[in-house]
Structures are given as structure tokens and as C-alpha cells.
Amino acid sequence: MAEFSYLRPLMTKGYIFDFPSQFTTKQISEFSEEDYDTVTQKSSELMKEIMEGNVIFWFIQDKLSKKIIGLVKFNFKNNTLNAKLDSSLSDEDAHEISFRIAEICTINLNLQKFTISSRINNKVYTELLNYYNTINDTLILKK
Q1: 63-96: b or e for each residue (b if 16 or more CB lie within 10 Å)?
Q2: What is the pTM of this model?
Q3: Containing domain of residue 59, as a range?
Q4: Looking at residue 14, what DSSP letter applies?
Q5: Mind spelling out the 3-state secondary structure of 20-57?
């Protein structure tokens, strides 16, 4: 985890990407729409994966409302990216966030090839196609 500590917080004009440890259980519960016990259990499992170096994970927070509006998770074990955004985001906001996710993949993590989750946000996927070629669910960095 220490090798990625420089990747927090990441900012855009209107959003902050930060590690789960920077958010309260209440904030996470409101975003995930899960009860406190479920969030606590999932957070514990996620922190174990993060500490083992298997996963890097950010919640995305609106700078003004302080509300969590999305997440980005990259699993190094199975080389898979997942990104979820609040469906009520404007196209402009979704583009701002999607562009930053593409930068995380190409610049910060230097991902050459990875699989996308079937649940990935469509706007994030579309932005990634500006940088990656796709074969089935695998993205390969354009040369």
C-alpha cells in the first residue's frame, strides 16, 4: 500500500478521489445503500486486500456536497478495473471523472493491458477507449 500512498488524494475541478480510510462508515453506507454491519464487514475485507497489495481503491467525493458519488477499484490479482458512478451525474461531471480515471490507468498505474468489470460505468468505458484498444473485455494500451 505504501507504494501507492502518493495517489491520494487525487483531484479534479469538482471531485476528490481518496482512499476508503478517509471516509466514515456512515458516508460509505449512504453511497452503497447498505446497512452499517454490511459496510463494516466489506470495509474490513477491502482493507485486508489493500494491505496485501492486491487492490487499489478510491471513493470519489463531490467537493461541494462532500457526498460520495462513485468508486474506482483496480484488482492486481485478476487485473480487473471496476468503476461505478452515481447515475444522476451530468454528462459534463461524468466526463470530468471518467477522464481522471483514464489518467489513473494510463499515467499513474501505467496499465498496459487489463480486463474491465461487466459492471463498469458506460461513460468511463467510453473514455478509456480513447486510450485503449478493446478485444472482448480486455483493454490494451494504444501505441
Answers
A1: eeeeebbbbbbbbeeeebbbbbbbeebeeebbee
A2: 0.89
A3: 2-141
A4: S
A5: HHHCCHHHHHHHHCCCHHHHHHHHHHHHHHHHCCCEEE
Calpha distance 22→79 (Å, rounded): 25
Cα 137 from chain centre:
17
Helix (H, G, I), strand (E, B) or coil at 95: helix
C-alpha cell at 136: 472482448
The CA–CA distances, whole Å, from 91 to 85, 86, 104, 122, 123 equal: 11, 11, 20, 11, 8
Residue 118, all three cell numbers: 461487466
Task: Indicate the number of domains in the chain.
Answer: 1
114: cell is 487489463
**Would you mind telling me the total number of residues written for the chain in this entry?**
143
pLDDT tens sequence across 65-85: 999 999 999 999 989 998 889
CATH code of the domain containing 18: 3.40.630.30
